[in-house]
Amino acid sequence: MKVIIVRDSEEMSDRAAETVLDALAQKPDLVLGLATGSTPEGLYRRLVKAHKNEGVDFSRVVTFNLDEYVGLAPEHPQSYRYFMNEKLFDHVNVKPENTHVPDGLAEPLLEHCAEYERMIDDAGGIDLQVLGVGGDGHIAFNEPGTSLGSLTHVAALTRETIEDNARFFDSADQVPCFAVTMGIGSILKARKCILLASGSNKAHPVRAAIEGPVTSSITASALQMHPDTVAIVEQDAAAHLERLEFYRWQQQNWHLIADKL
Ligand code: GLP
């Protein structure tokens, strides 16, 4: 995994936006995998700005979100569909029919999961997947113990995740206990992934994901098996990385071979 250490969450969002905009410049019909949570909010603000100020065109972009709470309607302010509309989709010219978020109200849910996975494959697969990491090392809603080969499935949320996400709800007992989520196997099919992390509360999961053993106890560690993942990590979130100095050195000196790549 390539690791880029950045000063603050602003720089993290700048780097992430550059990656997305470069990919979009190369492939106007980009299939973009998107995440929710506070981590990618700065990225979405930059994409909206790029559309409004520089005319960046999202008309051929297709998006797939990682996950959705079971039981929340798209109009529910805490649903991930609502979040995405509010933070990104309503402010760029992506076609609403090209935006996909799992449907937390679908029944039967398992059929919906299989259909969601098929839709991703039919769209040609995800070109670039944006990821955050949960306090327990999860990506999407792949909680500790999830099979590293899992495809889109229904997941039960851990107590830690429910408590982490309670800040968006009036209280923890309003947080749904289940979600539809792309699996680790679904995420590993993406051609490129960017893993974003900021804040000292992410220092433990970041260290475990990047330098720990590949284990279903920290599902983000599966990204070590992915051929093209870049972790863009703000310095507080990077604080526990053992090879921090090496990552910084590599970052500063990469330009020495850039013309040979
Ligand atoms: C949720 C989402 C994850 C996200 C995580 C971290 O659990 N399902 O996709 O990465 O929250 O959220 P935050 O970025 O707010 O720390």
Summary tags:
alpha/beta, Rossmann fold, 7-stranded parallel β-sheet, 3-stranded antiparallel β-sheet, 8 helices
CATH class: Alpha Beta
In the CATH hierarchy, the third-tier topology is known as Rossmann fold
Q: Provide the low-confidence segments as ranges.
A: none
Choose one word for the global shape: globular
Distance between the termini: 17 Å
User: Roughly how much helix do the residues carry, as a percent range?
Assistant: 25-40%
**Main beta sheet:** 7 strands, parallel
Class per helix and strand makeup:
alpha/beta
Query: What is the ordering of alpha helices and beta strands?
Result: EHEHEEHEHEEHEHEHEH
- Numbering strands along the chain, what is their spatial order in the largest sheet? 1-10-9-6-2-3-5
Q: Radius of gyration, rounded? A: 18 Å
Separate helix tally:
8
CATH hierarchy: architecture: 3-Layer(aba) Sandwich
Mean pLDDT: 97
Question: Which molecules other than protein and nucleic acid are bound?
Answer: 2-amino-2-deoxy-6-O-phosphono-alpha-D-glucopyranose
